[in-house]
Amino acid sequence: MTSYDAIVVGGGHNGLVAATLLAKAGRKVIVLEAADAIGGAARTEAFAPGFRVSALAHVLNRLHPDVVRDLDLARHGLSLDAGDMPTVALAEDGEALVMHGAYGERLAGASAAEAEAWSGLRAQLFRYAGILKPFLARRPPDLAGLSMGETASLAKAGLALRRLGREDMRDFLRMLLMNVTDVLDEHLEDRRLRGLIAFDAVLGSHLGPRSPTSLLGLYYRLAGEIGGRPGAQALPKGGMGAVTAAIAAAATAAGVIIRTGAIVARIGVDRGRATGVTLADGEEIGAATVVSGINPRTTFLELVGTRAVDTGFVRKLGNIRMKGDAAKLHLALDRLPAFRGVPADALKGRLVIAPSDEHVERAFNPSKYGAFSPEPVMEITIPSLSDPSLAPAGAHVLSAVVQYAPYQLKEGWEAGRPKLQAAILARLEAHAPGIGRSVLHSELLTPADIERRYRMPGGHWHHGELQADQMLMSRPVAGWSGYDTPVDGLFLCGAGSHPGGGVSGAPGLNAARTILARRG
Amino acid sequence: MKTWDAIVIGAGHNGLVNACYLQRAGLDVLVLEKNDWIGGAAVSRSLTPGFLYSNCSYVCSLFRPEIMRDLELPRHGLQVIPYEGGAVFTQDGDYLANYRDHDAHRREFARFSKRDAEAYDRYARDVIRQCRFIQPLLLRTAPDPTSFRPRDLGELMYLGKKFAGLTAEEMALTLRFWTMSIADFLDEYFETDVIKANFALSGIIGTALGPMSPGTAYVLLHHYMGEVDGSVGAWGFARGGMGAVTRALADSFRAAGGTIRTEAEVVRVLVRGGRAEGVVLASGEQVRGKLVVSNADVKRTFLKLVEEKELPPIFLRRVKDFKIRGSSGKVNIALDSMPEFPALPEGSPCLQADMHFTDSIERMERAYDDWKAGRWSADPFIDMVIPTTLDPTMAPPGKHFMSCFVQYAPPKVEGREWTDADRDGFSESVIAQIAAYSPGFRERIVHMEVRTPRELEAEVGLTEGNIFQGELTFDQLLFNRPVPGYAQYRSPIGGLYMCGSSTHPGGGVMGAPGRNAAAEILRDLKRGTRDMSDAHDVI
Amino acid sequence: MNDMILPARRAAQDHFRTLRLASPFQPRLEALNRREDWYGWAGYKAPQSLWDEELEFFAIRSQAAVFDLSPMVKYRIEGRDAEAYLDRLTLRDVTKLGVGRVHYTAWCDDEGHVLDDGTLFRLGPDRFRLCCQERHLPWLLDSAIGYDVDIEEETEAVAGLALQGPTSWAVLRDAGFAGSERLKPFDLADFAHEGGSVTISRTGFTGDLGYELFVPADAALSLWDRLFAAGRVHGIRAIGYAALNRARTEAGLIVANADFVTAEHAVRADRVRQPDEIGLGFMIDAEKKGYYNGRRAIEAARRNGTLRHILVGLEIEGNVPAEHAIVYHRGKKEVGLVSAAIWSPTAKRNIAIASLERPYGDTVVDDLWVEIYAMRELRYQKLMKRAKVVPRPFVKLARRTASPPGIF
Questions:
Q1: From CA B332, how far away is CA C65, in angstroms rounded?
Q2: Which residues of B touch C (CB under 8 A)?
Q3: Total structural domains in chain A?
Q4: Which of B92, B107, B125 has the CB atom closest to C6's CB atom?
Q5: Which pLDDT band holds residue A149 (cuts at 50, 70, 90)?
Q6: Which pLDDT tens digit goes with each residue over B147-179?
Q7: Closest in B125, B132, B192 to C265, CB measured
């Protein structure tokens, strides 16, 4: 049996980040990826001859600066051009509103009064997101007893809060768990802007803009940064796969061995300690440290098995809500689509179809009962505009994240998929007349497809709803939020752990730091 | 002209509780009520001969026992009869009952699921643990977390210590309780839809939230805080209707020497040099007072009774941003005979408590979707009681009074004011739902009082008809209620206080805001609060 | 969903008319009950005492006593993985529990806090019965994730009787249960009864020679009659809980929610206990191969010395029972509470079961006192009595384990 110091299960970006940091600290590390390619949900894949696309995550907006620095990703081929990638809020009819700079430093297409109101709200939101930001790169506080370090960091957060000033601190405390619609009601009027912000707050979660706590989703976004610019976003050259490729290059350089097509069937446990893994083909690999970058529930219920852990823990894993509510659409287009009301230079940005916050809320309603809205909301990118290598000359790729698409569709996704695709295309057609005729190929990934293809239970890209009750000390489950688990030597490092999903590398970073802080 | 020591605006239960405490502390107190009846939303009125309605609130559960004792309400005639059962009717012709007896409760659940039957104890244990944590906060003034005053720091320490006293597991549950939806929370305990619906209703009553909205688990606690050591969420009827509560309060107040004037609508609070000096009535009459306490909600008080120029802009902004949100209505029905519910077996105690027809979370949530769209629910959630099954004083012999609390009803219908036709449509949705379970129901109706948010606002003065004078979401709880910086019953205007449900700890016929406000006033007057009972021990 | 079909569900509606269920033995209990001294036991009507508590107690120690066990919560656990399932669920090593054997065990939550104790009967290679005080179906079902096992609650379907006392075997013999003499302590076997069978185990809750008998509820009365017909000459008596409670105290046995609070019912989080804190440490086998619920926490508490309580037997001077008395060290420092106490008629000693805060009762056992408030004619007689930690059981009887059993 071959042995390593550490085995990382899952070659997604978090697994790779953790592996790299462990290897850099001198550990002998192997990464086992079940698929034929690394990257997990951060991959660039061909979906039609000559057309490639960021298969799941398609916009980079939160790769953690510590990850970029500690892995020296620039040296390994990551080019982070956070030049102005605008966000465009399409209007029901008429001109779109365009956010320029890092999350709307400038607004184009809004009234002066609205622009001013936005500028005030934006500053406020960034201030408050800034209070929460330091928590991203830290283990959640341990409720069973705060260490000195944790107490100090909490005290620091408290101090930062005090420094906001009294009225700002009051609003921070008041707004923390508010819903985004109420915040919009307090500040903004422009339906396009309200729709966009409502959409961004709930993207990737099973919440509507009116659901209390939905503002947290926006804070989570604004706590991200690209190239030192909070709230900025970028389309990585070569698609999201290029980001993972850079991380993998860093990993390899650090001595990590990466094996693809290596399906882990079991994580071995003996007397409460992880001993290694067994692959589907029966091969055994030993290690005293096993780090799982895959879903927490899969890790325990399938790979470790329930027999080696406590019932209450199994119960908590079962209670994690992780039913994906977003679908991914890829279109191969024979020409550049023409979106009505969108300035030409904004087309390379992120286009959001969410005409108003009420519209987003209405689209959310059916998803509560296992149906999708006939008028879904979505965020669109045309990555081939900034990276022509993704499509044949003259042709283009359209990539869209579409909400809401409930994992447990009542009629089943086999029947539902073509209907959802038709609904999405109808929306696209309304905003980009003629787009339907230019579609050469299409691919719609429903949560059921995402679950199958990327081995993500529920097709949930955060490996568990990122809602207040599943954050921080409650992520993935209360009592085990610090990357360690009831099995000694077995750690979690994926999006199911704090702080959650998105291509940030933060869970992988925090997990590796936790492991390295342990002796041995 | 006489100058009163204190003028209380509004003879609702909190206004009267506040007035009682102030009067008993030696102040000369005048309560001004705009209607020709007192009670606000805790009122029993006869609108058709022989019948007495609990026009608004209809159940006595949250009223703090400390207040009942201090103000001697039993002596002044208050009698409470506990619920004997309760039921949710299912669409398949069965029902799920809530029985007071622990084993009967389990056997009833076991009819639907043996697992759920045996899950109840753990659920009740977890809810009780949370109630025990929160209940002591009800009769305390919320600390201002931005303040360095010793009292605020002391209270913050108290909160911190209470939280630190929990085990890690309890803390985690507390954090989750405050942020989860009641639907998700119940999913962790139960598998049967009707059982979940049976508990979920406490998470939505009075709020403009659906059972799938995060935060509704807390609302459930709010309804369960009646008593923490008895059965979870024990509720009961006030004999003579909910007006009996305010009648007893008024008697207690008058017995202590207080004065109540009805048909005396306050239209403005007199402010000079940043201090309240009295009020102006609709008649133009001025009434002087050394201090003024408003039982009206925070919006009505500061946006209607006080001139804008008297208020700091940030306070004004926050008052405007306060979310009140009418979400419910009321249909009170006089019946010429006892309605039949064929699903219930002969002799079932369920008739003597609250009955519901919403047997799934999905139906409840869909009713909420209608509210979001600005419509009353096509398939509403109804909390129905027939108090006359236990209290014959409310109807002529053989006849009955039925109270239906109805959710959801928006403050405006698709953006416009309610019309009489809307009101009829709203009441029809209620009658139709009941009639589907009670043959011949329509024929028994002799009179109806239908109260949409429009009527609740116009008659009782509740802005948007919200029964809690403001949503019970975290942004409006504790030190945020009603607005940050003014969560201690005082206002930016010297001598003007708030004592309504807009203030901590919120709505329901609880009396805590009125009492807590009195405690703060007496502190400001440097008078002792020794006549106030300490909050009950939770040991 | 476990939904029964609608007609069955509706047929069960009327349960609300009878809040206390009748045991399958109710007609016989009613006939013998002269005192009408009933209490509620897990939703059943059960006798506190039938005619005379004192005589009932001596039936246990000197004759044959019959106690109706039917209200005990019972689960049938069956399936290919039943053994592995129960091995993970409960503290003791179930792989060592042979077919036809019974053991007393307990089960814990993740923190190692005891959810309940009970007896586990191995009826077949893949068939078990778990008897306990509280209800645990959600916990049992959630524990079954990953196991091929069926779990069914069968409290109402199965009637149970305890037949305890020196002449209990003589009663069985005369009732025609041939082969019952071969039952050693904690053995069980099936015997023919009325065309069906009765499961008899040599177990009990009295510390005496005794048996427990389980039959389908519809065979309950005939079993009763069979025992009583045979038992007349052996002094067979039906007894209530008061007598049993004395016998179990003498035997030093604990009762859930009397001597400790079960973890899922503890409203106050500090009331929960690990096995080592309630005298069940003997169930923990450091060498047990499989993981069991709470193992991690239990072993950590042992390793880190974080156990806070201990359950001990006390012998108290004098003869006034110290029920619910506070235990002091040096007469001043409060160190614990008595949860059960009687004047032992068999040992002729004043005995008690108490829960103490470590190190008291553990390494510090001298100078312990109990403060007894004895209500005598509307006055508390306050007594401060010296207490000595003694091993349990307080009463140890050779006949309990004698094999073959004697006739006595």
A1: 61
A2: 92-94, 97, 99, 101-104, 106-108, 110-115, 117-119, 121-122, 125, 128-129, 132, 166-167, 169-170, 189, 191-192, 345, 347-349
A3: 1
A4: B92
A5: confident
A6: 889 999 999 888 888 888 888 888 888 888 889
A7: B125
Is the pLDDT at B400 greater than 90, yes or no? Answer: yes
DSSP label at residue B474 = G
Show the DSSP H helices in A59-136 as ranges. 65-70, 112-132
Residue A12 bridge partners (DSSP): A39
Nearest Cα of chain C lies from the Cα of B128 at a distance, in angstroms, of 7
Angle, CA of C285, C291 and C295, to the nearest 5°: 65
Structure-derived torsion over alpha carbons of residues B460, B461, B466, B472, reported in degrees to the nearest 10? -120
Residue bearing tokens 């000195």: A148
What's the CA gap between C161 and B539, in Å, rounded? 39
Q: What is the pLDDT averaged over residues C166-173?
A: 98
Q: Is A304 exposed, middle or buried (0-12, 13-18, 19+ CB in 10 A)?
A: buried
Using the predicted structure, report yes or no on whether residue C4 has a pLDDT greater than 70. Answer: no
Please tell me if residue C78 touches chain B, with a CB cutoff of 8 Å.
no
Q: Walk across the sheet containing C210-216 and list its strands.
A: C188-193, C196-201, C210-216, C158-164, C64-68, C236-238
E strands, B231-285, where? 236-238, 259-261, 266-272, 275-281
Going by their DSSP bridges, the two strands B95-97 and B266-272 should be labelled as: unpaired
The answer to whether residue A347 neighbours chain B at the CB level (below 8 Å) is no
Q: Do B114 and C2 touch (CB under 8 A)?
A: yes
- Using an 8 Å CB-CB cutoff, list chain C residues near A309: 291
Residues in Cβ contact with A206 at an 8 Å cutoff, skipping those fewer than 6 apart: A321, A323, A325, A367, A404, A406, A465, A467
CA angle C15, C18, C21 (to 5 degrees): 95
CATH number at residue A51: 3.50.50.60
Do residue B114 and residue C16 have CB atoms under 8 angstroms apart?
Answer: no
pTM for the predicted model, two decimal places: 0.96
Q: Do A306 and C290 count as a contact with CB atoms less than 8 A apart? A: no
Q: Is residue A112 part of a domain?
A: no
- Residues of the domain holding A246: 2-79+237-320+463-517
CB-based contact B209 A182, cutoff 8 Å = no
- Answer whether residue A512 is part of any domain: yes
| Class of domain C263-390 as given by CATH | alpha beta
A207 touches chain B (CB under 8 A): yes
Residues of B in contact with C12 (CB under 8 A): 107, 110-111
Shared fold status for C20-72+156-250 and C263-390: yes
Domain parsing of chain C, residue ranges: 20-72+156-250, 263-390
**CATH label, C20-72+156-250, candidates 3.30.1360.120, 1.10.10.410, 2.40.50.140, 3.30.70.100:** 3.30.1360.120
The mean per-residue pLDDT over the stretch C361-375 comes to: 96
Alpha carbon of A415 to those of A369, A412, C21: distances in Å? 16, 6, 51
Going by their DSSP bridges, the two strands A350-353 and A490-492 should be labelled as unpaired
Shortest Cα distance, chain B CAs vs residue A379, angstroms: 24
Band (pLDDT 50/70/90 cuts) for residue A301 is: very high
Task: Tell me the percentage of chain A whose pLDDT exceeds 70.
Answer: 99
Q: What is the structure's pLDDT at B228?
A: 46
Residue A178 near residue A211, CB atoms below 8 Å? no
Where would I find the H helices in B57-134?
65-70, 102-112, 114-134
Distances in Å between the Cα of B478 and the Cα atoms of A252, A324, B154, B483, B518 are 53, 34, 15, 9, 17
pLDDT one-digit tens code per residue, A196-244: 999 999 999 999 999 999 999 999 999 999 989 999 999 999 999 999 9
Q: Do C269 and B104 touch (CB under 8 A)?
A: no
Alpha-carbon gap, residue A226 to C172, rounded angstroms? 83
A193 domain residue, yes or no = no
